[in-house]
Design a protein that fits this description.
Structural class: alpha/beta
Strand content: 15-25%
Number of helices: 12
Order of helices and strands: HEEEHEEEEEHEHHEHEHEEHHHHH
Radius of gyration: 22 Å
CATH architecture of the largest domain: 3-Layer(aba) Sandwich
Shape: globular
CATH superfamily of the largest domain: P-loop containing nucleotide triphosphate hydrolases
């Protein structure tokens, strides 16, 4: 028997279930998504479930169950069931589906915290951290940066300086699975009933970190590649595990590309610390490119705002706009963004 409160079940979810026409059936949480079925944690144990026709054909692809979803199912055999309904999602991490401009893919739902995992080697990228952070904050999920492989030689001051524009907006942990004392603070940061999703590139050590947090081998890991010096990708699906006496951890496969599925310019302004400057712009609808009296551009010119941070903001804003607009609107805005690119180049030359 499983105590579903350890997996996050609460009174709010109970109320959502009461609004379903299937409230008399059983509920559970999706622990993993396979090609043809779903692994579900229910009070009775772990089940393999398939989708009922009304779910399979009545929803868009990104609305189909993802890891972390709470669902209602009808058991029909030993450890098997049919998913007949999905409770409304909250705090769902999405990304833009690879190869598309506006389709999105659900990564995990009912997430309280997102561990953005970066390794302190050649894989480290501030720009990638910003990208993950924007999407996480957009869904009202608390971001935490986990820097792994701190046993390697690196310049801590340079790392902290590169992160200073976002560092005070989220906790940062320097960790190494070879040093248990660096893992303990992260363990204490995870509360019972919380759900934490791990996101990052391949080879940064997400699976190894989860094993260290759980103090047992939960996921398989690979040794460092001798040719590239990077860890080999091992996770192949999004999967949920329960920490003993603590929260729920959701591992995800490493991604080469994490496209934004967000169109909230306020989120971008706040994360890149443009908001305070923008308040002093002459025009309320300032695009922070070349308008007269733009306090953001002035901050870049005066050195108060780093050029790299500003350029990263422009890049992600362009991407988020592309995601949210129609093909017709995209064509109209191409000219506007061409102007943004040219102005950014002129600022760089000054």
């Amino acid at each position: 028997m499983n105590n579903l409160s350890l997996y996050g079940w609460n009174d709010s979810l109970f109320q959502l279930k009461q609004a379903s026409q299937y409230k008399h059936l059983f509920h559970g949480r999706v622990a993993a998504v396979n090609k043809t079925n779903y692994e579900v944690i229910a009070e009775s144990g772990r089940l393999l479930c398939e989708l009922a026709g009304n779910v399979l054909y009545g929803k868009l692809s990104f609305e189909l169950p993802c890891t972390g979803d709470w669902i209602i199912f009808q058991p029909f055999d030993d450890n098997k069931g049919i998913i007949v309904d999905i409770l409304p999602r909250k705090h769902t991490l999405y990304r833009r589906k690879s190869g598309t401009l506006s389709d999105r893919q659900a990564i995990a739902s009912y997430v309280d915290k997102a561990f953005i995992v970066q390794s302190l080697d050649a894989n480290f990228s501030v720009r990638r951290t910003e990208r993950f952070m924007v999407q996480v904050v957009e869904e009202d999920i608390q971001p935490i940066l986990i820097l792994t492989k701190s046993d390697l030689e690196f310049n801590r001051h340079e790392v902290e300086e590169s992160l200073k524009h976002i560092g005070h907006q989220m906790p940062i942990f320097f960790t190494s699975t070879l040093s248990p004392e660096t893992i303990l603070p992260v363990q204490r940061f995870i509360k019972q009933g919380e759900s934490i999703v791990f996101v990052g590139s391949s080879g940064v050590g997400k699976s190894s970190l989860i094993n260290a947090l759980c103090e047992r081998t939960v996921f398989s890991t690979s040794e460092i590649s001798k040719s590239s010096g990077k860890g080999r990708h091992t996770s192949t699906r999004r999967e949920m595990v329960l920490m003993e006496g603590s929260g729920v951890l959701i591992d995800t496969p490493g991604v080469r590309e994490f496209g934004l599925a967000s169109d909230n310019s306020d989120t971008l302004s706040n994360i890149f610390e443009l908001a305070d400057f923008a308040e002093s712009c002459r025009f309320e609808n300032c695009t922070h490119v070349d308008e007269p009296g733009c306090a953001v551009v002035e901050a870049v010119n005066s050195g108060l705002l780093e050029l790299e941070v500003y350029n990263s903001y422009l890049k992600l804003r362009k991407e988020s706009w592309y995601f949210s607009t129609s093909e017709h609107e995209k064509r109209k805005r191409d000219k506007s963004f061409a102007r943004i690119s040219e102005e950014a180049k002129r600022i760089k030359k000054r």
